[in-house]
Amino acid sequence: MTKQNNVVVTPEVKSCINTLISTVVLPSAATAPESMAVIGGFLGFSHNNFIKRLEGSNVNGWIDSMRAASPTRVKSSENYQEKCSWILFHPSALKVFDQILFNSKGKQIVFFLDYDGTLSPIVADPDKAFMTRKMRGTLKDVARNFPTAIVTGRCRDKVFNFVKLAELYYAASHGMDIMGPTKNQTTAKSKSDSNNKAVLFQPASQFLPMIDEVYKILLEKTKSVPGAMVENNKYCLSVHFRCVDEKSWAPLAEKVRLVLNEYPKLRLTQGRKVLEIRPTIKWDKGKALEFLLESLGYENSNDVFPIYIGDDRTDEDAFKVLSRRGQGVGILVSSVPKETDASYTLQDPSEVENFLRRLVEWKRLSSVNPTSAYRVVD
């Protein structure tokens, strides 16, 4: 398999490069190659010094990480230069749409989509994270043309109630609850449920009693923190702090940490203004992506082109899998620079909808006129 990581210099990137050139002070005798070396050094510094992930149970580390996940939008020359550098390495998927089509030539495109912040906007109340009607219509069209999976930290029932499309695969609870139609419905890992769907994999079932117990404890422990919300996602828990005053982040993180000290089989990770509590098993969104590709018959195939779109740190596990396989593309949904293994970016759910719609239109046109299949779709 050949890794597709070609960098396309779009007009937006050219503008950023010009800005960088204008901000670098060079000796008057500097040659053009030397000038580019200086710029390259600047870009390298910016590329390698994005927000660092903080691991471990140190509360101060978690607070720094929580702040890093919600950077202040301060407009400054330094921030603009950093964003220009970031765009150079992670161009817009809309700007390189024709290249993505070219790289997928002769292969089966398979979509993997996060929900919150990707298909729906991030909102204060996670129970009100509804997709727009336009997004649902586009998603339905995508599923008609490509195998499509929702890969989310939400519990399966909740995300299904948001999406309301039975033709999709659902990998809920960070991939620990996978459901969807498969080519081989007789696999030993599968069993039917009341919705006549196949439950493909639930690797954390033994943790359900423990997770329910911790959920009840956290409800009690966090009720004194205004704005904190604990969500039971069946195979994992989410402690939302989007509506919590920043001064209360440390006490909240400490409460969660103290509870988990008594449960070594659970681990704490972080997403966008949310603390995630999951079993310590080696399973994540990347593993879910691989499992679904295997279920579709593409485990060791060169004829598949996975496209994973997500906005959260938990999606990085899937981006890493695609990078390791040298297949498909990872697309990060973000309007600010972030450390990522994704190849491309989109700004927000509206750009995600635009990208998906263009793929649907390309598929429609290619079925009518195959000779135009890999031309740019405006």
Automatic annotation (TrEMBL):
It is an enzyme of class 3 (hydrolase). Keywords: Hydrolase, Stress response. Pfam families: Trehalose_PPase. The keyword Transcription regulation does not apply. Its cofactor is a divalent metal cation. The keyword Nucleus does not apply. One of its GO terms (molecular function) is trehalose-phosphatase activity. Pathway: Glycan biosynthesis; trehalose biosynthesis. CDD domains: HAD_TPP. GO terms for biological process: trehalose biosynthetic process. InterPro entries: HAD-like_sf, HAD-SF_hydro_IIB, HAD_sf, OTSB-like, Trehalose_PPase. It catalyses: alpha,alpha-trehalose 6-phosphate + H2O = alpha,alpha-trehalose + phosphate. Its EC number is 3.1.3.12. Belongs to the trehalose phosphatase family. Removes the phosphate from trehalose 6-phosphate to produce free trehalose. Trehalose accumulation in plant may improve abiotic stress tolerance. This is Trehalose 6-phosphate phosphatase. It comes from Pisum sativum (Garden pea).
